[in-house]
Amino acid sequence: MQYKEKIRKQMGKAIKDYHLIEDGDKILVGLSGGKDSLALLELLAAQSKIFKPRFTVEAAYVRMRNIPYQSDEEYLSAFATRQGITLHIVETAFDVDENRQKTPCFLCSWYRRKKLFETAKTLACNKIALGHHKDDLMQTALMNLTFNGRLDSMPPLLKMDKFDMTIIRPLCLVRENDLRKMAEEQQYQQQIKQCPYEHDTRRKDIQEIVSRLEEINPEFEYSLLHALKNNNVNDNSHPL
Predict the structure, then answer these.
(1) Listing from the earlier edge strand, what are the strands of the sheet with 157-160?
(2) What tens digit of pLDDT does each residue of 8-28 get?
(3) Other Cβ atoms closer than 10 A to 101
């Protein structure tokens, strides 16, 4: 099976169903070096060459000065160039002691996202594309239910009125295992991962719970997404 083609079709459906891309959009892809963002950049770059809708793509890699999470920046630049895309390498940092009420993972994510917003503004982009897939959305829903007492997740399209920016997640209908298979097909280079805080997050626990629930009920994915739909009956932003 050609997983790239399968994912391309699923991404196209998400773009159409959730109105993620419109004529004239300039989209900044957040490139981390992981399989999800690499696949997103490759597929969006190819999609941008199709006549409709007409949009352009830029890419940014955020280097975190105080976290030894290493990506081969030369590889990422060369990868982007092969897609006909310019990669902008930007830098930021955070103080782990700055806010003891927030986890290092939250602070790292927040500062990376802030830098992406700043870069998007500098490049005159009106949208930021992130590589979150369906598994991410499912896990986030369970995390919110477990720790925050609410059933919701990351929407495929989120308009940030305060920042005059829109976040899109074109891979929201794609399962992670398919992305893993595409990464193998395309021979993506695996990046070095040495984050000292990666074991401090509960997401790994939630991943294991989702896997167990799918063993118990192979239809769990559809049950959870149906629950999200019912919980957001007036909200067309969630993947169904």
Answers:
(1) 87-92, 55-64, 25-30, 127-129, 165-168, 157-160
(2) 999 999 999 999 999 999 999
(3) 5
